[in-house]
Amino acid sequence: MTYIKTLAVIVSTVLCGSAFAMGQSATSADSNEDGVLSLAEVQAVYPDVTEDIFMTADLNGDGALEDAEVTSAQEAGLIPSG
Q1: Taking the CA atoms of the chain, what radius of gyration do you get in angstroms?
Q2: Which residues of the chain fall short of a pLDDT of 70?
Q3: Is residue 81 part of a domain?
């Protein structure tokens, strides 16, 4: 029984990890459900986020915000956290 519970926790973590890391509002902004946020998705929820702010938050420069980048941007005050 312990093995099954452990497996269930691991599967849940893998499937839902990015949703918890990004927070509810950031997750709901991911309209195409690809696990990252585009500039358009961020601006749909937070219209005050400019392209310059988005590019600053996009630490790896790939044109999308991953969960860690969203968290960092929220902690830095670039993107609202709620």
Answers
A1: 15
A2: 1-27
A3: no
